[in-house]
Design goal:
Chain lengths: ~725, ~150
């Protein structure tokens, strides 16, 4: 315990000169009409660090440095503070932190930038927020000890009070706030051992359920400022094309349209409201020059060709080529994956209010300090002159974490181009803009070759992955692209969990003008499918049960085994199913969490099928809030299922062929299987749950379809024609 | 000026007659609980009630509403909607939360007409409302809980 406390303290002090600088944060007041309700509490509030503030009225405000996009950070993060602070859950409120890498940097990224991604929010806050709570608790106890002239060691904190049981008295945290704020933070605090936890491990209610069940939750699209104008941007029909000329005569004739301006991204129609902007954009005539003319069908063929020859090595164990030369029982398979749009329910939106030397931006900002820096550079401001108000995001799935800050940059560009209007700008995308606007999960092809030894065990595994790099050319390149290998292209394959004596994973990263981006669970969206279907193929070739086969190959991987066994047992693995039904399993580690899923399907003779039931087991370390973990597994399964069943963006001659939910269908309630989620008890440090539920579902379904029909699915989305009897 | 009744209040609205009801609610009346998701009646985020029936406000022109009574998430009241909101909160249904106003408006219309819906009834009534976070399993459970509450 001491070791943890000490290591944690070092992190805490290192991150931010956090304690000292944080002391002023109780007085932090954003400008503009969205002034946060700190009000008169500011003078007597207790703000021992950058993460919490205790007001005399006994409310405790926890500042959240991460974006709440549905994954539950507004609940899981304050639980860490509440645990150590000994606060009452009811008295805790949450507020999004301002953009500030020094105070709120993501420690999983070295603390250099503030942002949310890679399922790191809880993991990187695990010690930081418990220490924030523990420090405040010690200071409140010290304040009470001073007031009562007793020794601090005779006092304890509980449920929002400091209690002096010897003298039968207590004081609320609010009552002690003013005095505590005069004290210096302690140099050393000890974190509670797990046996003393009262908050961690409980399914406390989400802090945002009330607002989100009454229409009161505020998203960027809901911000209304006096004289605010709405901007819609006409973007090129082909990625990378530029404006040759435009005729705004008819657009400007639409009542309510204020102006039409060219910006680097296209032509913006700026109007009094959405409908005028929309009609104006419909009436706008733009001639475009150039742009990407690729077709996805050509890309597919090209990638398959590329996968025929070696790429850069991403993993190399033993000698796969030599083993291949002499292998007998060889298997070979090509896996194909399309571009995918995120299609979050809230179309991209930001509100930019630029006033001379200051700018306020409201957005579901996922990379706050990057968004801030990019907006500042466009407006000619210093980053600290741009105030990012992080609101709820109506989903993101990675889309808001754009290294180019694309929609924020558009908002800033429109604000700059319309500066003479002196009006705040609401930059909004339509659904068509979103589906056709790029930043997709890249298209990929995997070429796998495997062979079995005399006992049916895998002798070799060679996997060639072909697809665009997400990170080359972005600020993340230096961190996540090593010797030509974009880690996000190979994660989940290059660290294959199965014991295979000769393993080689190679990568080819062809370039294309189609913008790509991470998409919930990133590389694991495709590596999880290819590896978990192919291991199933090897099991079949070895005439072994898929669970037994995996179990043996995972003998050195106890956490993989743990979820595998739990999911299989709860699903009734091995019990017979009626004809036309099948059961399949997949197990995959992503973002340091381990998930196994068993899917049950029913297939008709025409190939149509339903996913009836999914049993999921997850090991994400200490389960901070089991209900949030279960919700994330359910949601991850639904999200992954959408991609398995219908997700596909295609381009023809450079033009995206889908535009809205009729031709880019996502999962609907009638397609949602019944889901059971089981959590493996664990004493490992907590890891993320936002993404890890996604990767196993598509391969579990594909393996279940094989069990039902004997037909292998190696292309997503699944085509029922491939399953016809 | 076009006369429009929303949440039992009549407004004289200065907007072109082809303006979708959604944007009158949001941009003119400031009722932002009703959301924009697709603009083509494909996702249900904009669901409101017209005389008690759920409609997609993103494709309903202002001029077509006429004397109809519009109810939004802000004004919806009665036992069914209260039971639904409470069940949504109790079961922690929302994740990102963006689609939930529309989900709740569709759900309340369902419960008003069918006091004890089966899973199949729920799937049929709610299939027009997309939730990209896939909170569907909890939506089903919350509807059953709300139905049980109403039954007493």
């Amino acid at each position: 315990m001491n070791a943890i406390a000490n290591a944690g303290r070092r992190t805490f002090l290192k991150t931010g000169v956090a304690l000292g600088a944080g002391l002023t944060l109780g007085f932090y007041l954003p400008t503009g009409i969205m002034r946060r309700a700190v009000g008169n509490e500011s003078t007597s509030s207790f703000a021992p660090n950058a993460f919490l503030r205790i007001a005399p009225d006994n409310t405790i405000t926890v500042l959240i440095k991460h974006l709440e996009m549905g994954q539950g950070v507004y609940t899981g993060l304050p639980m860490l503070v509440a645990e150590e602070l000994e606060a009452d859950w009811q008295q805790i409120k949450v507020e999004s932190a301002p953009a500030d890498a020094k105070l709120y940097g993501n420690l999983a990224w070295g603390g250099s930038a503030q942002g949310t991604g890679g399922s790191t929010s809880l993991a990187n806050s695990w010690e930081q927020l418990r220490l924030a709570g523990a420090t405040a608790r010690e200071m409140l106890i010290a304040a009470a000890a001073a007031q009562w002239s007793v020794d601090a060691s005779s006092l304890r904190a509980e449920q929002g009070y400091v209690i002096d049981s010897d003298n039968h008295r207590k004081a609320s945290f609010g009552e002690l706030a003013a005095q505590a704020s005069t004290l210096s933070p302690p140099q050393d605090v000890t974190l509670k051992p797990p046996k003393d936890w009262k908050v961690i491990g409980k399914s406390l209610p989400r802090k945002d359920s009330q607002a989100k069940s009454t229409g009161k939750a505020q998203f960027a699209i809901d911000i209304r400022l006096p004289s605010m104008l709405t901007a819609l941007v006409a973007r090129p029909p082909r990625f990378g094309a530029s404006v040759k000329s435009f005729d705004a005569t008819q657009a400007e004739a639409v009542p309510g349209v204020k102006t039409v301006v060219q910006i680097p991204q296209g032509v913006a129609v700026v109007a009094e409201n959405f409908w005028a902007a929309k009609k104006g954009r419909d009436a706008l005539k733009v001639e475009w020059d150039g742009g990407e003319t690729v077709s996805t069908e050509d890309l597919r063929r090209h990638y398959i060709e590329l996968a025929d020859s070696p790429g850069l090595p991403a993993a190399n164990v033993g000698d796969a080529e030599q083993a291949l030369a002499s292998a007998e029982n060889k298997l070979e398979a090509i896996f194909e994956f399309p571009y995918l749009a995120h299609a979050s329910m809230e179309p991209l939106c930001c509100v930019v209010d630029w006033q001379d030397q200051h700018c306020d931006i409201w957005a579901g900002s996922q990379l706050q300090t990057l968004d801030q820096a990019i907006a500042a550079s466009i407006l000619g401001l210093k980053p600290e002159q741009v105030n990012i108000h992080t609101l709820f995001a109506g989903g993101s799935f990675g889309r808001h974490a754009n290294p180019t800050a694309d929609y924020i940059a558009e908002g800033a560009a429109v604000a700059k181009a319309t500066r003479s209007l002196k009006a705040p700008i609401r930059l909004l995308w339509t659904r068509e803009d979103d589906i056709q606007g790029g930043y997709y999960r890249p298209q990929y092809v995997h070429h796998l070759v495997g062979a079995l030894d005399g006992d049916g065990k895998p002798l070799l595994w060679r996997q060639r992955i072909v697809g665009q790099s997400i990170l080359s050319g972005t600020p993340f390149e230096s961190m996540m692209v090593k010797e030509g290998i974009d880690m996000t292209s190979v994660e989940g394959a290059s660290n294959l969990a199965y014991a295979i004596p000769n393993l080689r994973v190679e990568l080819r990263s062809p370039k294309s003008g189609v913008p790509v981006l991470w998409w919930r669970s990133v590389g694991h969206t495709h590596t999880g499918f290819a590896t978990e279907v192919f291991i199933d193929e090897l099991a079949t070739a070895a005439r072994q049960d898929p669970v037994a086969y995996r179990r043996e190959l995972l003998s050195q991987r106890p956490r993989h085994q743990g979820v595998l066994e739990l999911a299989a047992a709860k699903a009734g693995w091995g019990t017979p199913l009626p004809k036309g039904r099948g059961r399949g399993i997949a197990v995959h580690e992503s973002f340091n969490s381990f998930v196994a899923e068993v899917a049950e399907v029913t297939v008709q003779a025409d190939g149509s099928f339903t996913v009836d039931r999914v049993v999921c087991a997850v090991d994400c370390g200490y389960a901070i809030n089991p209900d949030v973990i279960k919700a994330q597994m359910e949601g991850g399964i639904g999200f992954g299922l959408a991609a398995a069943l219908s997700g596909r963006i295609t381009l023809k001659d450079g033009v995206v062929q889908q535009s809205n939910f009729h031709d880019y269908p996502v999962l609907r309630i009638n397609q949602m299987p019944s889901i059971e989620v089981y959590i493996v008890p664990s004493e490992a440090n907590p890891t993320g749950v936002g993404e890890p539920g996604v990767p196993p579902i598509a391969p579990a379904v594909a393996n279940a379809l094989f069990a039902a029909t004997g037909k292998r699915i190696r292309r997503l989305p699944i085509d029922p024609n491939d399953l016809k009897v | 000026m076009i006369s429009l009744t929303v949440n039992e209040q009549t407004h004289e609205v200065d907007a072109p007659p082809d303006t979708p009801l959604l944007w009158v609610l949001r941009d003119v009346l400031g009722l932002t609980g009703t959301k924009f998701g697709c603009g083509r009646a494909l996702c249900g985020a904009c669901t409101v009630h017209l005389n008690g029936t759920p409609i997609r406000s993103c494709t309903m022109p202002l001029a077509a509403v006429g004397a109809g009574q519009i109810t939004t998430i802000e004004g919806a009241s009665g036992k069914a909607i209260e039971a639904i909101k409470q069940a949504w909160i109790d079961l922690n249904v929302p994740q990102c939360g963006y689609c939930q106003s529309g989900q709740i408006m569709s759900a309340s219309a369902l419960l008003t007409h069918n006091a004890k819906p089966t899973d199949a009834d729920i799937d049929a009534a709610m299939a027009g409302n997309i939730c990209r976070c896939a909170t569907y399993a909890r939506i089903r459970a919350a509807l059953h809980q709300a139905a049980a509450t109403l039954e007493g």
